[in-house]
Specification:
The structure is a single chain. The protein is 58% helix and 16% strand. By secondary structure, it is an alpha+beta fold. Strands 1, 2, 3 and 4 form a four-stranded antiparallel beta sheet that branches. A hairpin with a 5-residue loop joins strand 3 and strand 4.
């Protein structure tokens, strides 16, 4: 996150996102594509066969510029998600439009920081959905392995080898997820600090101070949600290693 300027306040940041997208490719397409055949690379997407879901990686870049004299604000949001799942990518924009329309209807100005909260909460929602799909896949692998262990007429070893590869792939991905979630955690922390500084510079009145407290509470709730997601990742990582030990 960068901050500079005297007559204006500006910064930018990048939010890494992972979204659970229904898979539209068949197994052969996954094997033939560059990303699909390189699942061990956590920078690529992760295919979850149990639920027919792909966890797709992307990022959102936010640029914020506020003029301290005219009090005008400009925000540029660049979403790098694939246009094939535009309904997911357009969610924050739709929420922003609903917020601004409501503000116009109530004849009040929305606080410049509302867009940051929308982007972060949308990203957290995408992450949670992706992690739940990840957990569902782990449950399926564990159930299949246990049935294989207690089967009196076990099949060939090809299946355990296939699951072993899938589990090691998932282990690599969840390790990367933890690093990306730390980035989001730092961004939320910095935004809360910048928000406090922003209110101090703009000398908020009583109504403004009340709104400031509400927004700070919102940032605290978002930070709590991000912490919960990070802990969920720790659980998934441990669970993955436990299931690998069954192979």
């Amino acid at each position: 996150m960068k901050l500079s300027g005297r007559a204006f306040s500006r910064w930018w940041y990048t939010i890494p996102v992972r979204a659970a997208i229904p898979c539209t490719d068949n197994q052969k397409s996954h094997a033939l594509s560059t990303a699909g055949s390189n699942q061990m690379n956590p920078s690529q997407y992760l295919h979850l066969s149990a639920s027919g879901i792909d966890i797709r990686p992307s990022k959102i870049v936010m640029y914020f510029h506020h003029n301290l004299i005219s009090h005008s604000t400009s925000i540029i949001c660049i979403d790098f998600q694939d246009g094939r799942w535009h309904e997911v990518a357009e969610e924050p924009i739709k929420r922003a439009k609903e917020t601004t329309d409501a503000a116009v209807h109530m004849k009040r100005a929305e606080h410049p920081f509302f867009m940051h909260l929308i982007i972060i909460t949308s990203a957290a929602r995408w992450w949670r959905s992706a992690l739940e799909a990840f957990n569902h896949q782990l449950i399926q692998h564990e159930d299949s392995l246990l049935r294989q262990i207690y089967d009196t007429n076990p099949q060939a070893d090809a299946y355990p080898n296939e699951v072993n590869t899938a589990l090691h792939t998932m282990a690599a991905h969840v390790h990367r997820y933890k690093a990306e979630m730390e980035v989001i955690k730092e961004v939320v922390s910095d935004l809360a600090i910048k928000y406090t500084e922003f209110c101090a510079v703009n000398n908020c009145n009583l109504e403004g101070r009340t709104a400031a407290c509400n927004h700070l509470s919102s940032f605290a709730l978002v930070a709590s949600d991000i912490t919960a997601l990070r802990k969920f990742m720790d659980e998934l990582e441990k669970k993955t290693q436990t299931i690998i030990a069954l192979v």
